[in-house]
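Troubleshooting log. The previous run stalled partway through. Resubmitting the same two chains, unchanged.
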Amino acid sequence: MATSSLAPPEVPMELHAGNRDRLLTALRAHLSATASPPRGIALLQGGEEQTRHCTDHLELFRQESYFAYLFGVREPGFYGAIDIASGQSILFAPRLPPDYAVWMGEIKPLPYFKDRYKVDLVFYVDEIVQVLQDRFSQHGKPVLFLLYGKSTDSGNYSKPASFEGIEKFDTDLGTLHPILTECRVIKSEMELGLIQYANDVSSEAHIEVMRQAKPGMKEYQLESIFLHHSYRYGACRHCSYTCICATGENSSILHYGHTAAPNDRTLNDGDMALMDMGAEYNFYGSDITCSYPINGKFNSNQATVYNAVLKAHNAVISHMQPGVKWVDMHKLAEQTILESLKNEKIIHGDIADMMTRRLGAVFMPHGLGHLLGIDTHDPGGYPEGLREAKGARTELLADHKRT
Amino acid sequence: MATSSLAPPEVPMELHAGNRDRLLTALRAHLSATASPPRGIALLQGGEEQTRHCTDHLELFRQESYFAYLFGVREPGFYGAIDIASGQSILFAPRLPPDYAVWMGEIKPLPYFKDRYKVDLVFYVDEIVQVLQDRFSQHGKPVLFLLYGKSTDSGNYSKPASFEGIEKFDTDLGTLHPILTECRVIKSEMELGLIQYANDVSSEAHIEVMRQAKPGMKEYQLESIFLHHSYRYGACRHCSYTCICATGENSSILHYGHTAAPNDRTLNDGDMALMDMGAEYNFYGSDITCSYPINGKFNSNQATVYNAVLKAHNAVISHMQPGVKWVDMHKLAEQTILESLKNEKIIHGDIADMMTRRLGAVFMPHGLGHLLGIDTHDPGGYPEGLREAKGARTELLADHKRT
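Second attempt completed without errors. Output:
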């Protein structure tokens, strides 16, 4: 029987108010630096529930990440606004039909959302034009700063808010995205607390998987144990990403576990397992991979590879500190792995030469790591003026996704 | 410790070949009856993997249901075709880039899909125009019958297949959808076998939830137990729908459990639970609801309501047989419930009068049931010529979704 020391924490909604303050500070600084009028409204549209193809099957909704960052709203169909001059925050809730109460649940009154999400004002979505015109037009039509920009991980563009009557406002598509994205890079203490908790849940769940794994089981049974431990004891309904429960040769497939490679192999005695799984709590995620022999005992080849990775991991951790370049840490990891493989006579030759030829990428085709937050690959980290760092990082990761 | 007698069955891919045969028979009969040329190609496009909003977070893919019905393909990015004259079935697989093997898994050769999915021919998606022109143009440009029609449950339209070069063919948007939809209504023995298995899994998982439920737990912990039992022991990675784990007053909300009402109440001594959960196996689903007191003992009010529903349930089952009208069974259920409530002096008056005024809809706002298959609300069942039945059913369900 599984046991757990987890205690799902109350979610501090002040966290999202803190995120809004961070955005306000950054936006005001930007407007000041560009000698622009110190006003306007940052307006975001939350996600909508989606049906699966043409059916009425509703996918379990998870809020769009930028909207979650600023407002923490779990429900679909919202808009959110922040008035740059006053700092006021406004939520616009969907007006639900009366039979929603029979089918979907209690129709919450507006003050419920004001209290829950710690915003200054709440209206209905169908009031958005009137509210913005009546309350925020003392300096003429307010400029709406909309979220539009490219995700450097997916290549997809965020969809700017749209609503009936938006043509009555001036809109700005270029300002908000880069500024908000950089806000997300440095986490507050409250954000770190949630990320820590999600990682605590995942650690415990990984250990439970490790305890139960044995030859003859299926990979998906390990996934199920992880999901169950995270949800039952950790209150994590979502994972940060689809569980990667790879054993045997599957362990070499970085993003194994999806529908076309669905964790369906039978575990053998002598297999290594590579378990890459992370739970999510109140939007904040985790990302933990661990490798171990299914039968509980490393053979010598397994130990060699494991120790090479461990040595690289420890080398990077001991060198990490403010001011150190990411790219140098990536190279340190590659070099440490190559040295270990050379010591074990798995590869031969001059390490400096191997580094020049990027041989390390054969053994570590992915990046050293990535930012973690509301997205597993949290955005940002390429501030203007640091093109050199971005270029170097991009080169290292050329033709690769981040893992 | 949970135990299980479940043994996930091999999936018979002949099932989908059987579904294709059913479609062929129906299409040929239709073309014959309308004196149309007995040829053309039914062409469907499978689903694509979706990222979450602008991020690179990939949602776990589940195949589009019509495509799953005909081809059983679990992977995204496919097209499938059936040549009406010859009966040949053709799959078109996406051509994957070489680094797919590093990131996503082994690139399966075309014969793998031919063998796995029991089709006659397999090509790449980028060969679709050439294949259709070279092999199926002996009578001139083949007509492509594309899937386009409205889901009566969601009001959404299915998206017809599209690909570069489709303008080189004649296309027909009206024929395939109603015919294929009606094919899905009557299930084959193999389909029934999978539906039975999914229901067996769900039954066992419901019983496990019932065993473990007790005051002080959270509703989501019951959901987690169900999901875990279905996946770990039943190999069911998907559910037919989001789990509804409703206790106390939540039990009166028909589709509780979604993100805005997320199974987060604490169970109290004295609560009734309404658990509406169903696992899915190889696309085929289940849908089981059971109600019981969390502390294991009905109080007299709970027993009254439970028995009223049970009596209606048993009345319908004992009257069901070929030729009986659905609407009459719905009315029988309503009348039986009203009679029970009158006997218990919860309502007063003339039952016939209550029936005329549709008082039953207050206590049973949903339909009596629905078709079940690859979708939880499986489509079809409104064959042409039965408008009367449809009208009556629609009236009964006026302003309501099916549950």
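Takeaways: Chain B has two domains: 13-185, 188-297. The first strand of chain B starts at residue 41 and ends at 45.
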